[in-house]
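re: the backbone from monday

yeah here it is again, tokenized this time
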């Protein structure tokens, strides 16, 4: 059965989150005079990402709301007591610098153009619709997706099968006719495969090149490789370039 739709992750798949996060944080800390508190901008970013991962794990486990995980990221990062309003204000100021660094990866628009006539497109993100809807509009690709689904509103997050199946249901397609493209080998790659979708893991930075890709999944280094995988039903044995 051919693949009829592609469901996309956003951060570090379509959107260069790693670069925007790094440059946005560096710019913000410089403007606020906070770099010395962390030693260097690089050390500050390492700490920010550690705290982000910790708080995101709490949110994914269902213990806190999306807004609370964001506020707690600020409190832990700055190591201070803050009201919700104070933590929100931090994000408003930080977001100005962060958004100034937003960009799509250069391979995104070409592949969306190539696949526009042959496949339907949707988004499934572990963020919130408020965040990703705005981001996709700013990046100029919002209208390329029929459906935009996010964990905060779904009540279930990747790698749970329910998140991927919700995207399939929104497209009115069975899982075996849908591909999922994401940057995380477990959250995206394993999760999509376990839910019955064609799983395509984009390993942009090659840092996990030694990770073995199980049968039924695909690893690509650039989205330019995606059309060849989607061109025929490769779920049952044919390998991709990195398969």
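seq for it, each position gets an aa:
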């Amino acid at each position: 059965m051919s693949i009829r739709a592609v469901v996309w992750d956003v951060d570090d798949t379509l959107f260069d989150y790693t670069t925007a996060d790094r440059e946005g944080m560096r710019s913000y800390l410089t403007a606020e005079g906070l770099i010395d508190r962390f030693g260097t901008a690089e050390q500050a970013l390492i700490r920010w990402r550690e705290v982000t991962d910790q708080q995101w794990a709490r949110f994914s486990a269902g213990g806190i709301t999306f807004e609370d995980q964001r506020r707690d990221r600020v409190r832990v990062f700055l190591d201070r007591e803050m009201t919700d309003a104070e933590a929100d204000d931090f994000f408003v100021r930080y977001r100005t610098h962060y958004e100034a660094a937003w960009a799509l990866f250069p391979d995104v628009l070409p592949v969306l153009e190539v696949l526009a006539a042959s496949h339907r497109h949707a988004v499934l993100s572990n963020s919130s619709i408020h965040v990703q809807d705005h981001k996709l509009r700013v990046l100029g690709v919002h209208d390329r997706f029929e459906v935009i689904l996010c964990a905060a509103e779904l009540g279930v997050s990747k790698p749970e099968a329910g998140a991927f199946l919700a995207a399939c249901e929104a497209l009115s397609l069975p899982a075996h006719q849908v591909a999922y493209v994401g940057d995380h080998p477990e959250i995206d790659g394993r999760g999509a495969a376990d839910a019955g979708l064609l799983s395509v893991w984009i390993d942009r930075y090659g840092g996990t090149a030694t990770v073995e890709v199980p049968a039924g999944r695909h690893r690509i280094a650039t989205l330019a490789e995606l059309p060849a995988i989607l061109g025929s039903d490769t779920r049952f044995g044919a390998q991709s370039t990195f398969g």
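Strands lie at 5-8, 120-125, 147-150, 178-182, 198-202, 217-220. The longest helix spans residues 41-60.
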